[in-house]
Amino acid sequence: MKSISKMFIATCILATLSLATQAQDKKQDKPKKAKTEKMKLKEHVCTQACHDSGKHVYAHGEKGHVCTSDCKK
Questions:
Q1: From CA 18, how far away is CA 55, in angstroms rounded?
Q2: Which residue positions does the secretion signal occupy (predicted)?
Q3: In this predicted model, which residue has the larger pLDDT, 66 or 28?
């Protein structure tokens, strides 16, 4: 009787270990790309804001634009 219970316990331990090792094999998801990387960027077109400030003011979606918290609103 003792040998059967030892075999049962050993079988349970092996089953638990095999399940634990399979849980670690999942592939991790690739990080999502930012929306600006996915969308096609347009060439910059100067606006009145460029002339008023004396330097280029890039709009969202133009080459050279860096997103800020204002863009995400």
A1: 63
A2: 1-23
A3: 66
Q: What is the pLDDT of residues 17-38, one digit of tens each?
A: 877 666 655 566 666 655 545 6
**Which residues lie closer than 8 Å to 34 by C-beta, 6 or more apart?**
67
Give Cβ neighbours of residue 62 (< 8 Å, ≥ 6 apart): 41, 42, 43, 44, 45
Please, which residues have CB within 8 angstroms of residue 42's CB and are 6 or more apart in sequence? Answer: 61, 62, 63
Collect all residues with Cβ–Cβ distance below 8 Å to 65 and sequence separation of at least 6: 36, 41, 58, 59
Q: How far, rounded to the nearest angstrom, does the alpha carbon of residue 15 sit from its chain's CA centroid?
A: 34
- The whole-angstrom separation of Cα 55 and Cα 8 is 77
55: CB partners within 8 A, 6+ apart: none
- β-bridge mates for residue 42, sequence order: 62
Q: What single-letter DSSP state applies at residue 49?
A: H
